[in-house]
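Lab notebook, bench 4. Still working through the backlog of constructs that have no structural model yet. Next entry is a single chain of 67 residues. Request: give me the structure tokens for it.
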Amino acid sequence: MEQITLKVEGMSCGHCKAAVESALQQAGVNQASVNLETGTVEVHYDPQKLSVGQLRDTIEDAGYDVV
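Model written out:
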């Protein structure tokens, strides 16, 4: 299990938080936690199943920008 914190732009409300966390969980991460104040998402994932690129793509497909 690995953990990564990604900086995400465009998240501003509870709906944004839920959308990003839900998209990541559907992609197969173990845990995703959005912090709206810092504009980050902490992701716990299995690197044998998902790459950082896939995590970024999942967030971007949900309509947010990973920087």
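Notes after review: The mean pLDDT is 97. The chain has one domain: 2-57. Flag for follow-up if needed.
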